[in-house]
Amino acid sequence: MTESLFETPFVAAPMAGGTSTPALVKAVHEGGGLGFLAAGYKSPEAMTAEIAATRELNVPFGMNVFVPDRSQLPPGPEARAHLEAFRAELEPDAARYAVTMPPLRLDDDDAWQEKIDALLADPVEFVSFAFGLPGKPVVAALRKAGTTVICSVTSVQEALAAAEDGPDAIAVQHRSAGAHSAAFLPVSKESAGTPAAARTTAELVAQVRGAVGLPLIAAGAIMDGSGLRDVLDAGASAAQIGTALVRTHESGARQLHKDALGDPAFTETAMTRAFTGRWARSLVNEFVRDHRNAPDGYPAIHHLTSPIRAASAAAGDPHRLNLWAGTGWQQAKEGSATDVVREFLNGL
């Protein structure tokens, strides 16, 4: 473990959409871990208010920020046509709950610059990035402000690119992880089926460890102390844990989502673009099955499906809700996040 960075091998994954909360950050800290908040989908004002609320708890924490995909702002004519077609495909889902499909929104960069400005004006201990690289100037400015910077990757190639930005650490996400993939480089035909497609999170960590010298945080289907020990032995300084915390009392996830993780009716996960237009791992429900060919289009598809997902939740129907889950979801437990963290660390 790189004690100077985290002082713990347990890092709570930042989970956007309301799952990560100040209460979860505190509970994780009390168990011996480091908690993270998530700026994704929040306004800059909501982000700064959550930072202020967490500071009152007097615990260390980090903030995660989505890097916008400039190729989608706005998308080209062909991509827009695919989005229009998918919008029409979603009409029956909307009709099920008597909700109106919104028009396409093609200009959302998740208030990128405003959030960076806010984090520079009032720095937090840690900032991590997902969906792309923030760029050398942003990394340098945050580090100068005293923030430890973490870039998220899914391959050796992405890790090498991330290292060029000069972060303090790299989060290495395996495809077994729940929710959105952090991938930002295309997978070439030449690399498909090669060691780049590591079978486990520990294998991927070992591959990245051999390519870059920065501290690594492992992510992907790490559900207990044994899994944590495996990635530490492979060269990680810490593990980023998400799915194992979703069902906890302090998690802000919808109760419908928490219950689904413990429902034996759900038997598998799959990578899908159906909910947001970006690859993410979810429990397989009717929506995932019905929209297997959803196009690339984040965050436009996120905005299209948002009212459907909200109506599904209000109706108590888990079959049109994004039920993010890593491949080890069946091991997720109810109870206090503090106890979950302690159990992980006791297994070392």
Question: What's a quick, concise take on this entry?
Answer:
The protein is an alpha/beta fold. Helix content is 37%, strand content 14%.
Low-confidence stretches: 188-195
Helix-strand category? alpha/beta
The quaternary organization reads as single chain
* Number of separate strands: 11
Task: State the helix count.
Answer: 14
Distinctive features:
348 residues, alpha/beta, TIM Barrel, 2 domains, eight-stranded parallel sheet, three-stranded antiparallel sheet, 37% helix, 14% strand, globular
Q: What this model shows, in words?
A:
Helices cover 37% and strands 14% of the residues. The strands form two sheets. The chain has an eight-stranded parallel β-sheet. A three-stranded antiparallel β-sheet has the order 7-11-10, with no helix packed on it. It folds into two domains: 10-70 and 109-246 and 333-346, Alpha-Beta Barrel (TIM Barrel); 74-107 and 267-322, no CATH class. Mean pLDDT is 95; it is low at 188-195. With 348 residues, it is of the alpha/beta class. It is built from 14 helices and eleven strands. It has helices spanning 22-31, 44-55, 77-89, 91-96, 112-121, 136-144, 156-164, 201-209, 225-233, 243-246, 255-261, 286-290, 300-314, 337-346; strands at residues 10-12, 35-38, 61-66, 126-130, 148-153, 169-173, 179-180, 216-219, 238-241, 269-272, 280-283.
